[in-house]
Amino acid sequence: MSIFNIIGMAGGLGLFLYGMTILSNGLEKASGGLMEKVLAKMSSNVFSGILFGALVTAAVQSSSATTVIVVGLVNAGLLKLKGAVGIIMGANIGTTMTTQILRLTNLEGETGGPFLLQLCKPSNFSAMLIVIGLIIIMLSKKNKNKNVGEIMMGVGILFTGMILMQEKIAPLAELPQFEEIFATLSNPILGVLVGTVFTAIIQSSAASIGILQALSTSGAITFASAFPIVMGTNIGTCATPLISSVGASKNAKRAAMIHFYFNLIGTIVFLIGVYAIQYTIGLPFWNSNFDTGSIANFHTIFNVTVTILFLPVYTVLEKLAVWTVREKKSAEDDETFTKEDLLDDRFLVTPNVAIAQASEAVVQMGHLAHKNFVSVTTLFDKYDLKVIDKIKEREELIDRLEDRVGQYLIKLNNCGLNEDESRMVTTLFHLISEYERIGDYTVNIYETAEILYEKEMSFSEQASRELKITCDAITEIISLAIAATQSNSMEILLEIEPLEEVVDRIVEELKSVHIDRAKNGLCNIEVGINFLDILTNVERISDHCSNIAIYLIANQKRFTGLKKHEYLDELHKNGPKSYEAKIAEYAEKYSLKRAEEC
């Protein structure tokens, strides 16, 4: 055993961990933000939670990553604590997929033989995956294809590191000290402690089991020594979620505790059961050598068995977590959920998830602005102080969200984003400004209503009907902007500009009509000025909705820049027939003749 063997082992370990990181990152990017949506929606019952928790974990190759996402979703109020139990149980099953894949290194055999057989050998197959993955990354322009190349390279590097470790570990079989070390680790307390500490350090139970599988090729590892180490890895993997829950809401801390209790109790039950059998009946394979396949199988059997044992009494885990993280008796209630809670820093480790959360926060800004506008339009008929208090409260939340989302996007921008993610972050920066301005112009309208109320002035019946039609159009265009932000639907996006054009025509016509009324003495000058102020503000709200549509169109079509005026000029001059048809449809829907007929 020379120094070069030790260096080679360290290099193999580095490649193994790096390959696992690349594979996990590639799979997360390929999911396109789907992980958190699936986990949040498919947790209605424990069975679907287990299934999708296992599938998502198998996809991202990390139970810790899945559990951290669960903690973040619970903290954001998107996932109930009860729904988190099944997902966490399923995550432990999904993480066994990695060890089952790594057992394929047993296929390494003698050189020679048919070409296809040699191609299937992990050393050859992994090298081909690395080459193909590298070619895809270098030649592809689309991020989806690059993600595929990244996944292939991750698998190839993972296997290369595993094989290198196995080769350098082989001389260990000749050292009596090596066998003595693992004989010592057969002590359950010491073995569990080593497995726990090592897994907590590298933050991956799958990686710890993989390293144990590599060591097993020396022939010195028996079931007696491997068993407590595997048990320890299940406790050690709880470290990452527990750390991530620090500073989170009460329920987020409870979600991390559910993961801890599930692994801790399962480990204790298995330890008691296995050692009880060994010291009474005896296990025939207790001192047998454990190879990569045996370790993978035992890891899977353990996690599946523990899940089955907890299935009938899974609510006990929730109760234990609630008992551990108790209610605070202060007046402060950390269960209060605000829109800002969506922006959890735990999501920054998976940028596509963080972008999805930031997008949802921007949508909430839109909903708040929309509610405020609808509330403001009621003030001209009935000036209600309770309504005004709600308007001010929402406006303060919009302003806070603009600041909070902006800071979150700055952090997100420093997370090594790909081209599409970077473009989306830029778009979201624009959108928070647009929605904030919509909120500001709505407040301007409220202030006009306040002036009218204090001076005991009101609009004529005709002006009120005209204002209602205009505000109905603005209510719809804000709704379209929100729906487009939420769905990124091109169909919805292309409806916004025709309605904005109709709003411009309505405002222009009403301004002209009111100026004529004022000139002819048919309208109080001061009331007329306030009416024109409202029209100016609603027109600007409409403009900002148009801006939102243009930013989203530019993002969807991957334009590096889309100049608004050039785009609108082209649309007005050479727009499709559907554009003109939509203008006609909205013009009919919000015709001012309706105000005259009422």
Which key phrases capture this entry?
598 residues; mainly alpha; 26 helices
Give a written overview of the molecule.
The chain has 598 residues and is mainly α. It is built from 26 helices and no strands. Helix 4 packs antiparallel against helix 5, helix 12 packs antiparallel against helix 16 and helix 22 crosses helix 25. The chain is elongated and about 110 Å long. The termini are far apart.
In terms of topology, how is this protein built?
Blueprint: H1 3-31, H2 34-41, H3 46-60, H4 63-75, H5 81-94, H6 96-102, H7 115-119, H8 122-139, H9 143-169, H10 176-184, H11 188-202, H12 205-216, H13 223-236, H14 239-244, H15 250-278, H16 292-310, H17 315-324, H18 351-377, H19 385-413, H20 419-454, H21 461-487, H22 490-519, H23 525-556, H24 564-574, H25 577-589, H26 593-597
Helix pairs in contact: 1-9, 3-5, 4-5, 4-15, 5-15, 5-16, 6-12, 6-16, 8-9, 9-12, 11-13, 12-13, 12-16, 13-15, 15-16, 15-17, 18-19, 18-20, 18-21, 19-20, 20-23, 21-22, 21-23, 22-23, 22-25
In short:
The protein has 598 residues and is mainly α. The chain is built from 26 helices and no strands. The protein is elongated.
